[in-house]
Give the backbone structure.
Amino acid sequence: MNGGYIVQDGSVLNKYREQDLFIPASTLKILTCLVALEELGKNYRFETHFFLDGQNNLYIKGYGDPFLTSETILEVGQKLAELGVGELGSVFLDESTFALDGESASPENSANPYDVPNGALAVNFNALPVHITKSDTTPTITTVTSGEPQTPLLPIMTEAAASLLPGRHHINVATLPQSGRLSPALRYTGELFIAQFQQAGISVKKGYTMKLVPAGLKPVYIHHSIKSLEEISRACLKYSNNYIANQLFLACGIKFFGLPATWEKSRRAFTLFAANNLELSPKQIFVQEGSGLSRENRMSPGALLAILDSFKPYNALLNQKSSILVKSGTMEDVYCYAGYFSRENRLIPYAILLNQPQNNRDKVLHILHAAILQGQLPRVNQ
């Protein structure tokens, strides 16, 4: 078996290749959420700042909120309208709090939404919903609508539909062609904000573009994320959302080393946390990004067990598989599980990291679980 596992119930231990390094895939998200919860706090909320200048231009400065959804942006528009905003000159988008230099978590850059890029000011998880229907009477005619009711039809959707087949699509916005100096992701942000502002009764004369907030300008409104960090972590783990995981990863880098967010700052932050909080060295764990998408991530089963020991206060954030708390990790030739067995009201952490073509993780999980329930794990000299 090209893999390793470890399970520990007090002084009773069962292990195999527990110090060897393997690709952890999405089980890494347990560490990402642990670092975020411990360093930022479970009640932390991301912010987005809004500014008005003397010409009635609105500046929007993002700080990485992963839940800037269509519904949220409509609520922001309604709040600004309540504050007296009725007509704007231009909308300026400021994403300077992130400096990612084109690097992304995944090297694939596929059209799949799990490959979307991260950003300081991104909407709807950088996934573009498009619905294309074919006419029943004239097969050459198709109709393009938004793929979800809460999001209006945007010009970027119509353009994207030109290369898509009929059906419902959620596509990685970064795979669309760039228009001018704005990335497709920032264009999506600008179009959605203006559309939702208009629905809230705010008109925009001159459209949107990218521009830094002028020095000294004070925000007229600060939006706090609709979800606390604890709620965001629960969503990240429940849906194994790569975009959310790396927004948390980048936020932790800011916490340790300040603005702007960079991948390298976050890697250094996670190395420090692993050493100082978990007593793990780079020989036991290497974190390239926070979602598990990168095949450069490495972790030993023993390191994952140490992470799970510290994650026990947050165990309820994990999904349940029968009576077992579990986070899975799946990639080509990578099949992993991590979580907790329960026995006599005790949480018993386990880690299974398989890097092989055969997906035997369920078999290993059930064998270890049965042994725990029967109290048959061999004792190891401590």
User: Anything to note?
Assistant: The CA atoms of residues 176 and 289 lie 24 Å apart.
